[in-house]
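FAQ: What does the model actually see?

It sees only this:
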Amino acid sequence: MILQLNRLGFSHHNHHRNMSEASFASLQAFRLQVAGNLHRVLESSILGSDVLSIKWIHRCFQILPILNNEFAKLMGEIDYPVSSWEAGSIEEYLDFTISMLELLNAINSSLSHLNQARVSLSHALSLMKNSPALAVERMREITVHDSVKGIKGSEGNGERNRNEKERIFHEGMMVLRSTGFWTCGVVLSGLKSDARPIMEIMGTGMVVDCSLIRLDSIFRKKITEERGLVKEVEEVNETLRMIVLKGIGDSDAVIELKRRLDVVGNGLKGLKEEEEGLFAEFMAARNKVLETLRAKNK
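And it is asked to produce this:
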């Protein structure tokens, strides 16, 4: 994102000819590009068997860098670099990034909860060889993190007088905000196996870009029907129940449980790295805007 903001902040191209037509054409192209990427990356996953899997959550995360890149392109096309942003644009961008950081923190918390439950189960499994009865006694199914309190996306700035570039910026930010918040919402709902996070995040009165309406409807229906944990986590629980049902002597089930715990562990590690990378990128982008603001005020 730093590279994107450098492009966004140090663009010196002039597009003064037919500025109004060119600007609105750029905005329309931005909307279409975002919608196209969103549907290409997520629609097949939502409709297919991968929904609510670690692979599916990874695809959701892939949307966020794409959004940032397309927004940077839009700012370059309308010649509105960070160094030229009006106070209202800066405020709107900073408000968006702080909300994204809060949402990524909530995702981080959910990932940590799932991983801690996995580690506890792995420890219980390690006792199986010497103390099988104690191992089974300590085995607990992985459950979801119940807390969804405080998860909220900001509504953005209200209506005010804006010049043309500010208007294009604001319209682009509406797409960026609604799509970014929705993406984080589906990740949280997937990790928690609960539609409440997406409903809380998107239920703030925020304008939702039209490209999301169909996908959102499909996703909410899907998660309501599935009513299960992340698929790889549910597979762990299924194997655990098999061990308890068949008895401690079922070595094949024990081996399978270890394999599935490894799959979950590797998957959660990858998601954690992605979340931390995205958090660092949003933080760096936010700091870049703040540095530019401080330089302008000297």
